[in-house]
């Protein structure tokens, strides 16, 4: 084939030379002579003297079309080889190279090779508009790359391309961006933020979606699950250990239960409680299969085995790494049940607590210790007697804060009335 190609490029007539090369490209592609096909492509791209840029661009367009007609497996191998050859003069054949990259990305996406698809999409050069701004297709591609990285459990990659799209996207109207952002928050285990973002998608259904389903109930179900897990938003273990003044080896002896787990729970906040209340009052949630679980969490009742099994099936659908799914669920249900127990009991044996929650006494003690240290549970552990003593101090403190706020509101109202009366004495009650 190399000798034959050499004869073609020596043809003095440029039009005949181009036609011979074009016919050879088509015939070798159709006959399956892929090695010969690549030889012709290499000569067309590299021999600038015998194949002028204008002719080379037309022939590379023929190459692009020929690759598109090949079998998908062949496209993946030959397409990559062609891209490697085109890199020699990348700027001259950018349009054709982008088309091949997009085709290879689509094939990988169809086969659920998410990271490979994202890699090919990310190498496509942007089609800048007249003012140098990215086009709508460029923005859609950035969001698709983020979507693909999320599917491959690469949260950092997804967030990187989401941030690139953020400067171009009108967040309030692009639903794909908002859904992708909610999924990133979910994957980072910022469940309270994810729940709010998913719920906003169910109330604001404006704008088309190209990557995701527009069904509000799908995002409502996701919002409920994230809200249930919202109290248990995870933070990296290193943050708490960095705040300790002791060295690392001493930490391992004093806080062994922290080292056994990769994440720990963040304090429960009003944000999560308000979100749960809002979802519980939403009539649409009553049609969800796990509404009873939402009801029990909202009412601070114990989650039983059947409720945890229902949650387990739903949590598997979230953007959490598969190896962390059970860990997140166990932590969430255990700590919820501990809070439910704190409402019912003033003291309880650790052994009885473990049996009630269907966990080991060591796990129960470690979880209680974490929650007390993080001030999410009022009480103390009597290790000599194996007893957990719970106090109601936090409820009294909350009531006191509420009384102080109410008193300030009343004082402000009295001050307003005095100022009104001093300025308009005719309104003074007789």
Automatic annotation (TrEMBL):
Keyword Nucleus: yes
Annotated Gene Ontology cellular component terms: COP9 signalosome; cytosol
Keywords: Cytoplasm, Nucleus, Signalosome
Record localization: Cytoplasm; Nucleus
Residue ranges that the Swiss-Prot or TrEMBL entry lists as coiled coil: none
PROSITE patterns according to UniProt: PCI
Domain PCI: 193-395
InterPro entries per UniProt: PCI_dom, PSMD12-CSN4-like_N, PSMD12/CSN4, WH-like_DNA-bd_sf, WH_DNA-bd_sf
Main location: cytoplasm
PANTHER family: 26S PROTEASOME NON-ATPASE REGULATORY SUBUNIT 12/COP9 SIGNALOSOME COMPLEX SUBUNIT 4, COP9 SIGNALOSOME COMPLEX SUBUNIT 4
Family, per entry: Belongs to the CSN4 family.
Name of this protein: COP9 signalosome complex subunit 4
Gene source species: Rhodosorus marinus
Higher taxonomy: Eukaryota, Rhodophyta, Stylonematophyceae, Stylonematales, Stylonemataceae
């Amino acid at each position: 084939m190399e000798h034959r190609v050499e004869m073609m490029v020596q043809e003095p007539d440029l039009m005949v030379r181009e036609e011979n090369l074009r016919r050879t490209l088509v015939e070798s592609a159709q006959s399956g002579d892929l090695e010969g096909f690549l030889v012709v492509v290499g000569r067309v791209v590299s021999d600038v003297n015998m194949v002028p840029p204008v002719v080379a661009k037309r022939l590379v367009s023929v190459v692009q079309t020929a690759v598109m007609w090949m079998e998908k497996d062949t496209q993946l191998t030959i397409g990559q080889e062609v891209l490697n050859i085109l890199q020699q003069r990348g700027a001259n054949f950018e349009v054709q190279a982008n088309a091949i990259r997009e085709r290879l990305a689509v094939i990988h996406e169809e086969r659920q090779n998410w990271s490979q698809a994202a890699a090919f999409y990310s190498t496509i050069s942007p089609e800048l508009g007249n003012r140098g701004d990215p086009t709508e297709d460029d923005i859609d591609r950035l969001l698709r790359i983020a979507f693909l990285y999320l599917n491959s459990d690469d949260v950092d990659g997804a967030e990187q391309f989401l941030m690139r799209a953020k400067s171009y996207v009108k967040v309030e109207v692009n639903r794909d961006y908002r859904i992708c952002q909610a999924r990133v928050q979910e994957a980072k285990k910022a469940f309270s933020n994810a729940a709010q973002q998913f719920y906003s998608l169910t109330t604001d259904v404006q704008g088309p979606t190209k990557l995701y389903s527009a069904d509000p109930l799908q995002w409502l179900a996701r919002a409920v699950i994230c809200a249930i897990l919202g109290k248990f938003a995870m933070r990296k273990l290193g943050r708490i250990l960095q705040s300790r003044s002791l060295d690392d080896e001493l930490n391992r002896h004093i806080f062994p239960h922290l080292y056994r787990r990769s994440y720990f729970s963040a304090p429960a906040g009003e944000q999560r409680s308000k979100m749960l209340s809002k979802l519980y009052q939403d009539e649409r949630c009553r049609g969800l299969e796990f509404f009873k679980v939402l009801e029990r969490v909202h009412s601070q009742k114990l989650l039983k085995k059947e409720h945890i099994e229902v949650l387990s099936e739903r949590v598997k659908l979230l953007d959490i790494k598969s190896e962390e799914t059970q860990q997140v669920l166990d932590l969430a249900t255990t700590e919820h049940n501990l809070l439910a127990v704190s409402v019912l009991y003033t003291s309880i044996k650790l052994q009885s607590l473990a049996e009630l929650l269907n966990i080991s006494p060591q796990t129960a003690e470690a979880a209680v210790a974490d929650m007390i240290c993080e001030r999410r549970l009022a009480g103390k552990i009597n290790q000599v007697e194996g007893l957990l003593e719970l106090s109601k101090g936090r409820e009294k403190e909350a009531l006191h804060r509420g009384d102080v706020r109410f008193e300030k509101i009343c004082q402000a109202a009295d001050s307003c009335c005095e100022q009104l009366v001093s300025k308009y004495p005719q309104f003074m009650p007789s």
